[in-house]
Amino acid sequence: MATTGNTPLDESWFLERERAVAWLRLAFAVLAIAVIQLNPERVARFPLMSGLVLASFLFYSAIALVLVVRRNSVFSSFGSVAAGLDVVWIALIVFSTGGTRTPFFFYYSFPVITASLRWGLKGSLPVAFIGAAIYVSIRLSLAAESIDQPIGIDTIVVRSLYLVFLAGVFGYISEFEKRQNQKLLALSKTAANVAVMQERRRIMFDIHDGILQSLATLILRLESTR
Known about the structure:
The chain is mainly alpha-helical. The protein has helices spanning 9-38, 47-69, 79-96, 109-119, 121-144, 153-224; strands at residues 3-4, 7-8.
């Protein structure tokens, strides 16, 4: 397997991808707190819940980043759990900061994009449908309690389709990149095998030439002693 330093290429790509995801998650967490500080009215409805959700999301994002940076082996199998946690936390952020009128709706794109990076279409589409379902559920629950102001059904449909479209685009791009990476790995393995074979042939030729020279020298010595 081709390597970069002492790390296999596929593992190196995995680590770089998870590092980028972790930094992006932390940026989302910091941005959410900054927005609330600039507009505290967003948490006027559920101040305690909003504070706990935003603080815990920031703490979780920081821990996830530390694990990735340190290349902790525990985090290598944490992808599916992280995706679930991201969806739940973002749903709570949306719910506690304004429901369907929250400025954080676009946060749903984060788990969709990260799922596409990890698993392609088979990961991004389910996450998008789950995110859209949770978003609609929040809207219906708040509307039933007369908490949320009316919002057009067309807006809900457009936002849901946006998530699905985003999942399709990023999922396709991720799968295309994965196929290209697999081709590169196959080519690198082939090149490595060719290099090994050429080196073996060179050694065999060197040994062969050395044996022939030794035999020729021995024959010459035998001839000279006659």
